[in-house]
Design brief:
305 residues; mainly alpha; 3 domains; two-stranded antiparallel sheet; 10 helices; 2 strands; binds zinc ion
Length: 305
């Protein structure tokens, strides 16, 4: 077993000894340079590491970042940067939210905003992988941003989508991928030109501080893993199947809780889900026909306060 899903501590603590202040420096190359044995011997051997490694038997280069999580997390960041920009210019209002929801509807993504009562901050539907890809590919940013600004960000999103496709393609050349990923980061970090509020000012894109650990992994370590694990391709380590399962189970749970009016059950959610699955599997294997078990579509909607 060489890989694990979800935001592993490995990723937070980093695979190499890069410092946050060096994140935006594109002239440097970063390779995995931490050794798990050093961390086992001394838990705080590297800066930022405090606790005992979770999987101390696995060398760090045997841990594979999967393309799904890279896509999910980076898309989240790209989206939240757009929302932050609207907020910064005082444009994140009811009208904008309505336009966003309508645009989501156009691209067939179920999406809602709701306000958290205590903090008055706005929250929104957390999207499943497929929906995130739709947003990344098709959301028309010119509906909420100036045409010029929308084009600039759309270009960044498109290029990220291309990287995602390449990441999934076993034929992708590792060196070329690294080059493409670096070019993408250069674009992400496009600096502003001129003086704000004066003529000729050209607003850039984002700052090194806007980067996430996943962006660093995408640019510096994915190609490394491509070389190490070329035999199988990164795709064979993909977490998509596990995520799908997780979604199905969560969907079942919400459907059930809503059906019985949120009745509190004695057993925990996870046990209920597993018991339900066991029953379904039993019926399935024994060919019992169940009229009431017809699959039907369900939609999870967040409560709109
Ligand atoms: Zn690194």
């Amino acid at each position: 077993m060489t890989q694990f899903c979800h935001d592993l501590r490995n990723l937070k603590e980093g695979l190499c000894t890069i410092d946050k202040s060096q994140q935006g420096d594109l002239s440097k190359e970063w390779k995995i340079n931490k050794e798990i044995d050093k961390l086992v011997e001394q838990n705080n051997y590297y800066k930022g590491h405090i606790r005992k490694p979770l999987f101390d038997m696995i060398p760090l280069n045997h841990w594979v970042p999967d393309e799904l999580h890279i896509m999910l997390r980076i898309t989240d960041r790209l989206w939240s940067l757009v929302i932050a920009e609207l907020t910064e210019y005082g444009l994140f209002n009811d009208t904008a939210r309505k336009i966003i929801v309508e645009e989501m509807k156009r691209i067939k993504v179920k999406f809602q905003f709701w306000q958290i009562q205590e903090s008055k901050t706005w929250s929104y539907t957390s999207l499943m992988g497929n929906d995130k890809i739709k947003v990344l590919q098709f959301f028309d940013l010119s509906k909420i941003l100036s045409r010029q600004r929308a084009n600039m960000i759309r270009n960044l999103w498109n290029k990220f989508y291309e990287l995602y496709i390449k990441m999934k393609d076993q034929k992708t050349n590792a060196e070329e991928f690294q080059n493409d990923a670096k070019n993408w980061l250069t674009l992400f970090l496009t600096p502003s030109e001129g003086i704000p509020n004066t003529q000729g000012f050209k607003k850039g894109l984002y700052k090194p501080n806007d980067m996430t650990p996943y962006i660093h992994v995408l640019v510096h370590h994915v190609s490394e893993f491509m070389t190490i694990h070329q035999k199988w391709g990164l795709k064979s380590f993909s977490c998509s199947a596990v995520e799908k399962k997780n979604h199905q189970q969560v969907s079942y749970f919400f459907r059930k809780t809503m059906k019985d009016g949120g009745r509190k059950s004695k057993s925990s959610a996870i046990i209920e889900i597993l018991e339900h699955e066991n029953r379904s599997l039993f019926y399935n294997y024994h060919n019992v026909s169940l009229n009431s078990q017809k699959p039907h579509k369900i939609h999870i909607k967040a409560e709109n306060n």
